[in-house]
Amino acid sequence: MSQIQLSLTTTPASGTPEAANILKVFVGAAVYQATLQTERVEPSKKNGPQLSVTLTSAQPPAVLFEANAVLRYLASQSPQANSAGLVGALAALRLNSLFEIEEKRIVPLLAAKRPDLAQIYAALDPLAQQFIASAAAVPGPAEVALFSDLYFVYSASSAEATAPFPHLQAWFTALNQRPGIAVAITAAQAFLDVVPVVIFQKPSLSNRRVGPVRELSEDLSGKVRPIPGQRNVLITSALPYVNNVPHLGNIIGSTLSADVYARYARLRGFNTLFVCGTDEYGTATETKALEEGVSCQELCDKYNAIHRQVYDWFDLSFDHFGRTTTQKQTEVAQDMFHSLHRNGFTIEDTLTQLFCETCQRFLADRYVEGVCPKCKYEDARGDQCDACGTLLNAADLEQPRCKLDGNRPILRESTHIFLDLPQLQPKVEAFVERSIEAGQWSVNGRTITHNWLREGLKPRCITRDLKWGTPVPLEHMKDKVFYVWYDAPIGYPSITANYTDDWQAWWKNPKEVQLYQFMGKDNVPFHSVIFPACEIGTGEDWTLVHHISTTEYLNYEGGKFSKSRNIGVFGTNVMDTGIPVEVWRYYLLANRPETSDSIFTWKEFVMRNNTELLANVGNFCNRVMKFINTAKYQCVVPAWSEALVHPPTGAPATAESRLIGEVNQLLTEYIANFDAVRIRTALKLAMEISQRGNGYLQESKLDNSLYTNHRAQCDTVIAVGVNLIYLLSALFYPFMPSTARAMCQQLNAPLHVIPTEFNLDLLPGHVVGEAEHLFKRIDEKMADVYRERYGGGSSKAK
C-alpha cells in the first residue's frame, strides 16, 4: 500500500491551485483506474486541510507531497498508460514540456486570479497546443494536470467564450466525457465542500445550496449570486399567509412544487436561488390576533415559526425563508410606490365604507359580520358567506355589526389610492404575450391571465384603513397602509434583500435572470398582471416573471380542508403520523393537481406507497443491492461485457442495449417535461425508468443460476443495475431527496448530476455499501384509522 498526502495551507476554493491539486488526484485515479480510499484530515493550527489517499500498489510504500508527482506515479503503475506509450523515454518530451508549461504558466494564472480562456490559450506555446490538438486515447499525466487546472474555468465558460479555441474545446470535451470522469469530479467537489453536490444531512432553512459541479456562484459572504453568461434561475413560491397552519393543499400548490423545480435546476447545473417567506400584513392577521388575544407581531412570530418547522420537516431547500414584516419590505414597497406615483400611474378616489363610531375606525371586510343577503346565514363575513360561498362586499350585508364590539357601523366615505391599471394595460399585454410563449406558462395560468386582460383592467385600490401593514408614504395618507395584494408580491424582492445586499442583481437583471413563480390558481392575476404592472410602471428594468406554474385545488376525501372543523391533514399532522417524509412528498407530487382538481384519499395514499414506491423503486434497488452484497461479489462492482452493453454495429440487440435505449428515450422526455415544469409527468417518467429496471432483471433472470452458469452476463446485469440505481438517485432527488441520499449512501457515491444520457459511471472495482430497504409497507387497515383521525369520515361513506 502506498500513502499519498497533499498538504494545503488554505481552505480550497473553486478555481484555485489547491482545488486543482485535489481534482488531479481524483481524475488521475479515474483515468488510470487506481483504487483510492480518501480521508479529509481537518486542519490543525499550523497546517491547512489535507487529503489522505491510499492506493493499491505492489510497489514499496512511498509518501508523495506534490500533486503532479502523484499523477506521474499513477501513470507509472497503470497498464493502460504503459500500453499507450505514455510512460518511458519516448513520452519524456511531451510529459516534461506540458508539465513545465502547466507549472510555470497556468498555475500562476490560477493563483493570481481566475483567468479567462484567452489567457490560458496564450500561455500554451505552440508545442503544447499541438499536443492538445492530437490528444491520445489515454491522456498523459501532464494532460490530466492541465485538465484539472482548466476545469473550473472551462466548465463555467459560455459557448461564446469557448468558440475561438476549437482545439482546446475538442480536447477538453473528449477528456470530460471519458467514463468515470464525471464521478471523479463530483467526488472531488464533495471533498472540497465547495457548492457541495450532496448533503447527507437535512438542510436547515438557512441551508447551503445543493447542486452539481459548477463555477462557484457565491460571493465572499456565502450568498448565491447570478453568474454572467450562465443560466440563472430565480424561484419563488407564493408567500403562505401567516395566520394559520399550512395544509397539504397549500404545500403542494406552492412551496413543495417550487422546491422540486429548484432541486432539479441545481442538479441540471443552473445557478439557482430559491426564496420564500410568510406573508404577515393585512386584515387576516389583525382579526386572528384578536381571536387569540395577542399582538399582531406575536401572532406573526408564532406562525412564522410553525411554517418554518413544517417546511423544514418536508425537506424544502430554500436558500432563504423570510417574512414581510421587515424594514426591507417597507423600503422596497415604498420605493416602488414613489416610482409609480411619480410616473403618473396612481390616482386617488373615494370609497364608501362601513365605519364604526365606537371604535372610530373604518372596518375592513373581515371586521364586519352580518346576515348574508342571498342565503340569510346570520354569521356571514364581510368578504364571503361561509354557508353559500357567495363573495360579498361588506356594505351588502344585512344587519351588519362590528366584529370588534358588536355595534352597528355606518357608511362613510374614505379616500384611497388606486393603481391605474388601464393606463398600464398595453405594456402588460405585450409582456404577457412574450412571457407566455418564452416561458411555457401552465394552461390555467395563461387562461386566467388572458381572461383578466380580455375583460379590461380597472383601477385597483392599493390602500386600506388598517394599522397592521406597510405605511403609505404620503402625509395625507399617513393613517393608511398598503393593501396586502399590492404589498405581498413585493415580499419576494424584500426577502431577497434580507438575504443579500446585492438583491437587485437578481430582481433588476432581466437579461441574466429567469424568474419562475409557483402558486395556486387563485393567486395568478396578482403575479401575472398586478405585480408585473407595478414593476413596469416604475420605469426600471425589473426581472419580470418568465414562467408561472399553477395548480388547481387539492381536496380532502371528497371535501375541503378545514382547520376549524378538524378536517384534513395539516403540516403539523404529518410529523405525528410516523410516515416518512419521502412518502408524503411522493404522493402529493404524483397526485399534483396540475390540470384539474385532485383528491387526497388515505386509501390511495397507502396503495401508492405499497404498490409504487415499495414494489417498484424499492424492489429494484433492493434486489440489485442484496445480490451485490452477497459473498459472490462482496460489494464490488464487477467488470461488464462491452459486447452486451454496446453490441457491435449490425449485431443483434441485447437486453442491455435495449434497456439503455429505452432509458435514454425516457430520460430525454423526463428533461423535456421538467424544463416545461410538468412536474407530475416528470415523476411518472422516473418511475417508468425504475420499472424498466425491474423488467430488465426479470428478462435477465437474475439469480444464483445465472451467476453459476453465465458469469459474464450476471456480472453485466449487476454492473448495469448498480449504475441504473445511480441514475435513479439523481432523477428522484428533486422529488424524494431523502430517498436519493439513501440510495447514494448504499452505493457509496456522491449524488449524480442529472445527465442527458445513461452511462455506466460506477466503474469495475467500485465498492458499494450495505443494502437497506428504502421503503416500508403500510398496513392497508391504517387508511381507516387515519381517515377517522383526520376527519375524513367512515370508510362506509367512501
From TrEMBL:
GO terms for molecular function: ATP binding; methionine-tRNA ligase activity. It catalyses: tRNA(Met) + L-methionine + ATP = L-methionyl-tRNA(Met) + AMP + diphosphate. Residues 233-625 form the Methionyl/Leucyl tRNA synthetase domain. One of its GO terms (biological process) is methionyl-tRNA aminoacylation. Coiled coil: none annotated. InterPro entries: aa-tRNA-synth_I_CS, Anticodon_Met, Met-tRNA_ligase_1, Met-tRNA_synth, Methionyl/Leucyl_tRNA_Synth, MetRS_core, MetRS_Zn, Rossmann-like_a/b/a_fold. Its EC number is 6.1.1.10. Gene3D superfamilies: HUPs, Isoleucyl-tRNA Synthetase, Domain 1, Methionyl-tRNA synthetase, Zn-domain. It comes from the Eukaryota. Keywords: Aminoacyl-tRNA synthetase, ATP-binding, Cytoplasm, Ligase, Nucleotide-binding, Protein biosynthesis. GO terms for cellular component: aminoacyl-tRNA synthetase multienzyme complex; cytoplasmic ribonucleoprotein granule; cytosol; methionyl glutamyl tRNA synthetase complex. It is found in: Cytoplasm. Its main location: cytoplasm. Residues 647-793 form the Methionyl-tRNA synthetase anticodon-binding domain. It is an enzyme of class 6 (ligase). Belongs to the class-I aminoacyl-tRNA synthetase family. This is methionine--tRNA ligase.
